[in-house]
Amino acid sequence: MKQKEYMVHIWGGAWNSDANPSIEKDLGIKSGYHYFDTEEEKNEFLKLLDNPIYSKQGMARDIKYGVMTHKRTIFVGTFKYKDKEYVLHYDFGYEYPEEQGRFQFLENNYSCDCNRSIFIREEYGEDVMPELDCGDEIELLDYHFEYED
Predict the structure, then answer these.
(1) Average pLDDT in the 62-83 region?
(2) pTM of the model
């Protein structure tokens, strides 16, 4: 059985190309996902992030604890708009719970045409459809989740 571990996802202005001082150049800490076996290792990492010379530049973080997959959660949905089908791949990032992804696309923000049309245009190009207002013209035909390294 896999052991539980900590995952810290970090991003924000502290990793902009003009960040000065640069946490990436100074300490080698990149934005993204970092995994730790112990709470002590995680806490030492967070202390580095909490240094005001870096944190004042803007940082966001998400911390999870449990058995980790080390995989990205990808929503793959087949949508239909005006007799054309589009297969959309939406990357939620690492360790994203499938039930939250399902909720986003079936009931929450991503269930509306205003967002679905943006996602399809990003994947297929701006000419495939107009950017739609809120509504339900784009039908979700089928979906599943894939997990990638």
Answers:
(1) 97
(2) 0.85
